[in-house]
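Consider a protein example.
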Amino acid sequence: MPPQPIVYDAPTPEPRASDAETLRNEILEKLTYAVGKDPIVARNTDWLTATILTVRDRIIDQWMESTRDTWRTSKKRVYYLSLEFLIGRLMRDAISNLGMMESVREALASFNVELDDLIEREPDAALGNGGLGRLAACFLESMSTIKVPAYGYGIRYVNGMFRQEMSDGWQVELPETWLAHGNPWEFERRESAYEIGFGGYVEPVQQPDGSVRQIWHPAEHINAVAYDTPVVGWRGARVNTLRLWSAQPVDPILLDRFNSGDHVGALEESARAATITRVLYPADSNPAGQELRLRQEFFFSSASLQDIVRRHLQQYGELGSLPDKVAVQLNDTHPAISVAELMRILMDVHGLGWDQAWKLTKATFAYTNHTLLPEALETWPVALLERLLPRQMQIAYAINAMVLEEAREKGMEDEQIAAISLIDENGGRRLRMGQLAFVGSHSVNGVSALHTELMKHTVFADLHKLYPQRINNKTNGVTPRRWLMQCNPGLTQLISERIGSEFRDDIEQVIKLDAHAEDKSFQDRFAAVKRQNKERLAAVIRERLGIAVSPDALFDVQIKRIHEYKRQLLNIMEAVAQYNMIRAHPEKRWVPRVKVFAGKAASSYWNAKLVIKLINDVAKVVNNDPAVRGLLKIAFLPNYNVSLAETIIPAADLSEQISTAGMEASGTGNMKFALNGALTIGTLDGANVEMRERLGPENIVIFGLTAGEVEDVRRQNRSSREVIEASHPLREVVEAIGAGVFSPDDRSRYRQLMDGLYEHDWFMVARDFDAYSAAQRKVDAYWGDRSAWNSMAIRNTARMGWFSSDRTIREYAEEIWRASHV
């Protein structure tokens, strides 16, 4: 019998005071009674915890009120399922959104404690790697800001992806121990624990009405235990929940085995469970790694769906209204197994028939696609799924049969049907997770206008023909609270002084700044803020790398995941060309540049790791060559994370967004840089296309092949040999790197990397090189007219308001989720 719906009615507490004196007293009380420290001997880490707990109390009041409001009004909830949530440090975000920055600063100053010192002490939560996870974090904050009731669901990684260090220029992966000293933001919810099964067999059970219900009997069980973190919106408008799952054993220790002397075996179950939530993206280049990745994805998907269904039944007592009260967004293919798992829960656990379960499932799910790269559209071996998730694979087969029958009825050809099929029969049978997410959702969205159009004609071309109304576009955005107001307070204050503070509540009001772009006095103040930010970054580079850079130089920045399609290789090769030109033509007036790189390469991605080594090898030569006269410096900052980005982005003059056209779904780094007054050099890829439209082509530097031209070159299978041989600067670079000029300890280190450009230049590094180099010289010319540069930089900031995650989430809420918001 389903649980009876409950009526939630509780008094709303009076809001706590947030003046400096009240905060001072509460911080001291937390330090004494929660941390257990006398202020005389307390260290900054103790003050940090006491301050977080004090701020957290105020968040909790609003958190509970937000939950009460959702229960009272029966508002539709949004559930955002993502394998990553790159939330970064939370204290400054929370204090700023609550409007308590100055009062907290004053309260701490009375103890001779600097708030900024505490902010730097807080560890970054190791819950993501790149743009996918940071987008999820921006979306959660925006959902709280515009009052969309929401939960984010993910995994509580103990060690994240890895902490990146450098050893002789090579990436070294070490555990990220962000939870070593606890996490004062989170709450363990022991009552919200669910059993997750793996393996076993499926038993058909005859029901009294003659129907057959399939019952899955897993061979292995693991508990998923919830840990909740509050996510506060701007001005404390609403507080939503990030719920992360921790894997724990059903039996922590098999005592009989332990007492019999099998001490290791007795802890085997505990170790197996802990493995699931230990590391983000374990290497899947071997069968064990693939199985662990699949276990992770099913683990958090199943736990989340069980929690969602439990909450819905608790409030409403029946499942027929599920799509009316629940919207589940699948962030990429990682949670795609949710489609089969929700069907199992509805049919096998709650007794619904296939037709009703399928109708509810499709109406509940929506899917966001983030990539056109085939390797990123996950597929899993059917044999692995049949062994690990036998019931879910049965359901996937049934869904596939239904979809293919529909395709046949609509007269589709065999070739189209094969492309639509959830089962890829080429080179070993595999379940296509992108197809599963597509057919099991009522909405499938891309994340930029170009990406969405390419989806319709590439990876989902035949599914689009079968379901022509399903694909839609939701261009990404970033939260202006973190990516302007918090990371760049100097610019925020300057904007407020010039156009008023309304933009803090409605970022699109920043367009008013456009009218001041030609004002010389404002340009000077804008440039002064930028220089202060560059001085701060220069200090970080000097402290971490021992490299002295001038804040008067042009800061040229590429910070993102290291991947061949993002073309850090193109960037460093052009730097080598510039190095050659500086030495060959010392009489010219060269623009001083500091080229900043940061980003992690996946642990099993050899070519990406080799590019990191190349950047560091080139840096070693260029930075120490007296002939360069300090005109070019190269710095690779290790362990890129949100906090490092918050220092780099406000300091950037030039933003490198140079991916191979047609391969970057959107990008959000491009938006953050432009919002902070950096000019973009990039291809017509991802959101660069829409940025160009809104910034004006005169305020962005575009180069290179278009997505259509890239496709033509690939279709014709044209070699790049003639391109390389026809370009003297390019040939000189390829030959120098390939011959070991930058790797005297191993002359052959980069030979294969360079040789590959002649015949297998899939990412168009050689074909775009001359256009990229010419674009960089255009940047030099712009930099030479500092007033014109400042005007362009101001217009970049002024015209980026539309690229806010608030706008994106409003579009999701209105057009996909049908959820209330403000």
